[in-house]
Amino acid sequence: MSDAPASNNLLDAGLAFAMRVASAGLVFGLQVLLARLMPNSDYGGFVTLWTWMIAFGSFSAFGLAEAGVRFLPRYLVRGRSSAVGGFIRTGFAISTGGAVLLGALGVLVSRFIDGEAALIVLFIALGLPFLAIEFYLEGVARGFGWYRLTTLPVYIVRPILIGATVAALAALGFEITLALVGTVVVVAMACVSAAMALIMRIKLADFHRAAAVSRPQARLWIMAALPLLLVSGLEDLVTYCDVLLISLLLPAEQVGIYFAAARVLALANFVYFAMYLVAGRRFALDLAARDKARLESSLLQSSRLTFWLTVVAVAGTAAIGPVLLGAFGQAFVAGYPAMLILGAGMLARALAGQASELLLVGGHQRQAALTLAATLCCNVVLTVLLVPFFGIVGAALGTAIAMVVRTVLIARVVHKVSGVRIVSLRLPTFSTAI
C-alpha cells in the first residue's frame, strides 16, 4: 500500500525508457506494414482515423488521468489509503461512463454522415471507451510509479496485436482496407484495456476496501480534473494539429507522406515521452516535500537529459531518414525535407524538458492552458497560411515555429509561478534519479 522503494522506481523508469525505445521501432514497423499493404488513399484515411482517435481519446478520461498523477503520490506519501482507493474508484466510474456516453453519441452522428467520414467517426466512437480506460489507468499507474505498466500494454502489446493480426489477415488473402484495419484497431484496444483493468484490479486489491467517497471529496477531484482535461486536450491538439489540419487541406496521399515523415521522426521522439512518464511524479514528490532547490534540480536534470538525448536521436534518425522513408515506398521519400524541419522543432521543444508537467502537478492549470492555447493558435495560423504555398513543408515549418514559441512561453511561465529555471544546455549528470 505504501509508495514503492526508490530503487524499484528507478528500475521501473529505466525499463519504461527501454520499452519506449522498443515501442518507437514497433510503431514504425506497423506503419510501414500498413503503408505497404493498404492502397495509398486507404492509408491516408487510416492516418486521419488514427490521429483523430488519439486526439479525442485524450479528452475521454476527463482529466482524471492527469489528476491521478497530481493526487496519488501525495496521498501515498501521507498515508491516506482511503483517499487513494476513493480516487481510483471514482475516477474509473466517471471516465468510463462518460466515454461510453460520448461513444454512443458518436455512433449516432455517424449515421448522418456519408462515405469514408462516416466510417472514421464510427471507429472513433467505438474506440473511445477503451481509450478512456487506457488513459485513466495509465495515469493511475504513473501516480504509483509503476512505469512498466504505463508502457507495456499500450506501447508494446497493442502495436504487436494490430500488426500481427493485419499480417495474418493479409496472408489469408483478405484485402487490407480502412474498414478492416479500423476493426482490428478497435478490437486490439478492447483487449488491451481489459487486460490493464484486470491487472490494476489485482495490484490495487488492498485499496478496494476503502470507505465511501464523500460528495465534497468527489467534487474536489472533479473540479481539479476539469482544468487538467483542458490542458491535456490542448497538449494533444498541439501534438497532432499539423496532421489534423493537412487532413483537411491536402489529398490523402500527401497526408500519408507527411505522417510517414512524422512517424520516422517518432523514432527520436521516444526520449521526450519516456521522460514524461517519470517526470510528473518526481515533480509532485518535490512539491509535497516543499523543497524548491530539489525541484529546480529535478527540472534541470530532466531538461538536460531530454535535450541531449533528443539531439543524438534526431541526428541519428536524420542520417538514415531517406532509407527509413523508403521503407514505406519510394513516393514517401518526398517527405524528407519536412522530416528535417520537424526534427528542428523537436529539438526546440526538448529544451523545456517536462516543465509543462510541473504546471499540472503544481496546480497551475490555467497558465498551462493559456500557454498551450497560444501555441495551438500559432500552429494553426502558420499551417493554414503556409500549406497552400509549400504543401507538407509548410505544415512542418508551422509546427517547428510553434514549438519554439511553446518553449519560450513555458520557460517564462514556470519562472514566474515557481521561481525556477528549466532551460540548461549543460550536459546531464547521472548521480541522482529523475
Automatic annotation (TrEMBL):
Its main location: membrane. It comes from the Bacteria. One of its GO terms (cellular component) is plasma membrane. Pfam families: Polysacc_synt (PF01943). InterPro entries: Poly_Biosynth_Transport (IPR050833), Polysacc_synth (IPR002797). The chain crosses the membrane at residues 17-37, 49-72, 92-113, 119-137, 149-172, 178-199, 220-250, 256-284, 305-325, 369-390, 396-414. It is found in: Cell membrane. Keywords: Cell membrane, Membrane, Transmembrane, Transmembrane helix. The keyword Transmembrane helix applies. It is a multi-pass membrane protein. Coiled coil: none annotated. This is Polysaccharide export related protein. It comes from Devosia pacifica. The lineage of its organism: Bacteria, Pseudomonadati, Pseudomonadota, Alphaproteobacteria, Hyphomicrobiales.
